[in-house]
Amino acid sequence: MTAAPEPAVRPEPAVRPGAPAAAIEAVALRKDFGPIHAVDGIDMCLPPGRIYGLLGPNGSGKTTLIRLLTGLASATSGTARVLGVAMPSRANLARIGYMTQSDGIYPELSVWENLSFFAALYGQTDRAQLVAALEFVELETRAGTPAQDLSGGMRRRLSMACALAHHPSVIFLDEPTVGVDPALRVQFWDHFHRLAADGATLLVSSHVMDEADRCDELLFIRDGHVLAQGTPAELRTRAGTDNLETAFLTFAAMTAATPPADPAGPPGPAASDGPPGPVGTGAADPAGSAGAAAADPAGSAGAATSAVDPTAESGSEEIAR
Ligand code: ADP
Ligand code: MG
């Protein structure tokens, strides 16, 4: 991956009057699957009106974290809040949009039937709004097509329309652009920025770095821990590199080398200028990594290997997996 250009200065986020300080919040959030610590004590406090990138290799806990935040999975311990409301909360779901990683649409239903069904669940029955959502994902000519006859990319686009048609305030997008062609991907990101400018908060997960620079802020995640959080520019500076993929691997290696009791952030040229350093440490829980690797060898095991050898993935756009 070539070094990405420095992002343009972004406007201040639009914050809706009366909005809580944090749109998305986690306090000591934890989810275990038997011996696997999928989410291993995450604290986060994300103000509204911004796009947050949740970046980590396969098996790092992104989907599990999103499912906890949306209330679709129950936490082993800790608290998740969206717009100040503890999740799960059925009433709060109307304010939340969630595009799942695997398309949650009904294959036998048509594009239009899927969209109107999911929109109605959240109280959106305005036909013009549904048409606008279909036009946004460029599926207006496929309204009558059964979802099972769509290409993979088209199904992603339909899922996106279903997640956004009710104009949610907080939007979780789990690997939303996988299989989407480059031109439409650009349109998606432009739209995400318009939504954030209007006050929405977006948490977008990805295991590739080429979209990271489009986010206002990034959270690097591995083995259920947030390794580092900050703007793309801050993370580059703190890691001493102009390459975000290398920055990820640097934070992973630093975290693994940091004693559990050490409260300091990672050493780096501007560590004191950035936001708080990494939370949690991989070193504190080697059993967690081993467990995750055992269940998902293509994910965590590869990440651990690459973390100690940042050159291993050079040239790849994908985070070490
Ligand atoms: P990501 O989305 O970053 O790829 P996931 O959240 O899907 O990661 O998975 C994190 C870890 O939790 C992985 O080791 C995965 O195998 C495990 N995991 C996720 N869901 C389950 C489940 N329902 N049962 C058991 N293990 C799970
Ligand atoms: Mg996932």
Distance between the termini: 15 Å
What is the string of SSEs from the N terminus onward? Answer: EEEHEEEHHHEHEEEHHHH
Tell me the strand percentage band.
Answer: 15-25%
Please report the total strand number as a whole number: 10
> Which sheet architecture does the biggest sheet show?
6 strands, mixed
Spatial strand arrangement across the major sheet: 6-7-8-3-9-10
Continuous helix count: 9
- List low-confidence stretches: 1-11, 261-317
What class would the helix/strand composition place it in? Answer: alpha/beta
Small molecules bound:
adenosine-5'-diphosphate, magnesium ion
- Overall pLDDT: 79
Which descriptor suits the 3D outline?
globular
Helix residue percentage:
25-40%
What this model shows, in words?
This protein is of the alpha/beta class and 321 residues long. It has a domain at 19-83 and 217-321. It has nine helices and ten strands. The chain has helices at 62-69, 111-121, 127-136, 152-164, 182-197, 232-239, 244-257, 286-295, 297-307, and strands at 24-33, 36-46, 51-55, 77-82, 85-86, 96-99, 170-174, 201-206, 217-222, 225-230. The strands form two sheets. A six-stranded mixed sheet has the order 6-7-8-3-9-10, with helices on both faces. Strand 7 (170-174), helix 5 (182-197) and strand 8 (201-206) form a beta-alpha-beta unit. Helix 2 (111-121) runs parallel beside helix 4 (152-164), helix 6 (232-239) packs across helix 7 and helix 8 packs across helix 9. It is globular, with a radius of gyration of 19 Å. The two termini are 15 Å apart. Adenosine-5'-diphosphate binds at residues 33, 36, 38, 56, 58-64, 292, 295-296.
